[in-house]
Every structure is written in structure tokens, then in C-alpha cells.
Amino acid sequence: MESINDSIRDSYLTIEGEAEAIFKEKSSKFLCFAYHVESEEEIAARLEPLRKQYYDATHHCYAWRLGPFGEKFRANDDGEPSSTAGKPILGQLLSNEITNCLIVVVRYFGGTKLGVPGLIAAYKESAAAVIEVAKVVERTVDTRAKIDFSYIAMNDVMRIIKEEQPKIEEQIFDNLCSMTISVRNSRAEQVLGRLRKVEGATLEILG
Length: 207
Known about the structure:
By secondary structure, this protein is an alpha+beta fold. The chain has two domains: 7-139, Ribosomal Protein S5, domain 2; 141-205, Alpha-Beta Plaits (2-Layer Sandwich), CATH 3.30.70.240. Helix content is 32%, strand content 38%. It is built from five helices and eleven strands. The chain has helices spanning 40-53, 86-95, 115-133, 154-164, 185-196, and strands at 11-16, 18-25, 28-36, 59-66, 72-76, 101-108, 135-140, 142-150, 167-172, 176-184, 201-205. Strands 2-3-6-4-5 form a five-stranded antiparallel sheet, with helices on both faces. A four-stranded antiparallel sheet has the order 9-10-8-11. Strands 1-7 form a two-stranded antiparallel ribbon. Helix 2 (86-95) crosses helix 3 (115-133). It is elongated.
């Protein structure tokens, strides 16, 4: 029987590092770039060098999603007809369920107009091409917590840590011991619940 914890969505897909691809259509060349990003500041830092390096390109179109579930997103046509560039790029991020990712497609016009359907198809294929060569990875959504405990409570705490195996981010063993851990959301209630019951220990949720 599935428990409430089992149904918690606590993982997402993103790409690792960056990737590049090239797509050509009727003399137009599309340079495709994908980056793992964690913030809008990172996105801006990725876009600016591309604009400088490919200053002579006709368009720099892009789309991005941020957050474990793609809560924030944006698509930019950069002068192409409305919804013919950024939206198809975003569509590939959505259909592949990828987030925390920026895809930029730099177009060099080849002299032959593609028309609206042709542009939509070209930008869609460009985004698909760079996703295909990118390394897609699964990441978990975790709850971070800090537990402070007395030396006397150490055995009880460490037994739970050994059995549940959360990720240990930091630990200090002194007269008063502390440990910062992260636990996958679907298991957080179970693991943190056990730690809360340890006499001589206090638990603080960090996020």
C-alpha cells in the first residue's frame, strides 16, 4: 500500500554542466547551447558572453526553467515572429521535463525565409538536438535539518543516522555535538521524526 510519503514528488530532471549542438535548415545555421543554471543571475551571466561572441548573429533566442518543478520560466523570441522561437524551445524543456536549465539558440540567417511553421520547427529541432547530447540527470528535493545533541545522546543519534543514511553536510563532535543533514522529502517525516524522539537532542529545520 502506498503511503503519503511515497506520493510526494521529490525528484526532478536537469542537465549536468553544458552542451552544444548545430542544426541547419535551408541555409540558416542554428547554434544550440544548453546550460545547467540555478538562478536568473546565472542565466544573465550565460547570455552575455554568447551575445558578445556571436555578435554578428541574426537572433539570440532562448528559454529557461527554474525551480525543482519549473515554477519560474521565460521564453524570448529576440526579434523572430512572436512565439516562433522561444516558445518551441521552452516546449522542449517541458516535454522532456527538464528544469534548472537554459537553452539558447543563436541563428545565422542564410537568405531563405523559413516562414512561421518553418521557424517553429527549426527552433524545436534545435532545442531537441542540444537536449539529446546533454547529460540529463535526476536530482532530489531535500529537507535540510540541524540536530544538536549531548554527548550522552550520541549513540542514539548515530544509530538512526546509520540506519536511515541521510546525507551528512557537516558534523561537530564536542561537549555539545551538532550535525547538519539533508533528507529526501519523501523520507523526511520518517527520519526527522525518529531524531526528534531522541532524549537530549533538539532538531531545527533549515529548509
